[in-house]
Amino acid sequence: MLVLRPAERGDVGTILALIRELAEYEREPLAAVATEEDLLRDGFGASPRFFCLLALWEGEVAGFAFYFHNYSTWQGRWGLYLEDLFVRPPFRARGIGKALFVELARIAVREGCGRFQWQVLDWNEPALKFYQKLGARRLDQWLAMRVDGAALERLAQDG
Q1: Paired sense of beta strands 77-87 and 2-6, if any
Q2: What are the structural domains of the chain?
Q3: Can you count the helices (H) and strands (E) in the chain?
Q4: Residue 22: which residues within 8 A CB-CB, separation 6 or more?
């Protein structure tokens, strides 16, 4: 019933639709401004900057995991960073999210990653419970920081 597979060039429209559905769920629908061209350029060229797993339930796209690699200077190893995980509401409670996580863990181990990490919104209780059930621990001492948009442009000019 469930098939996990790496996304291909022809899946870009589907990936973008899933990104937008996730943005809607996370109450930020206008923040998802990526285009198909962006995804094609950055995920399906000679040096991909991201990877994506698609979850299909009986042939229908049920969800995805969108990830890339980072590097730990302390470990001296690269890691797997999960940017987005989303299972469409009609497909939830079928083990799809767990299957995506298990596959990502397998990828991380196979590729010699020192860690597998991600962020979760503090209000997303179902996700927090899900992750903790899988053995994840909260890193409460770390705070996410971001510079983007006009602030990023100003910082670059002030350098």
Answers
A1: unpaired
A2: 2-120 (3.40.630.30)
A3: 5, 5
A4: 32, 84, 86
**Three-state secondary structure string covering 101-133:** HHHHHHHHHHCCCCCEEECCCCCCHHHHHHHHH
Q: What is the pLDDT of residues 41-56, one digit of tens each?
A: 999 999 999 999 999 9
Asked if pLDDT for residue 159 goes beyond 90, the answer is: no
Catalytic residue, from 67, 71, 81, 131: name it. Answer: 131
In this structure, of 86-90, 107-111, 117-121, the range with the lowest mean pLDDT score is 117-121
Residue 88 tokens read as 């469409």
For residue 144, the one-letter residue type is A
> Does the pLDDT of residue 156 top 70, yes or no?
yes
Is residue 131 among the annotated active site residues? Answer: yes
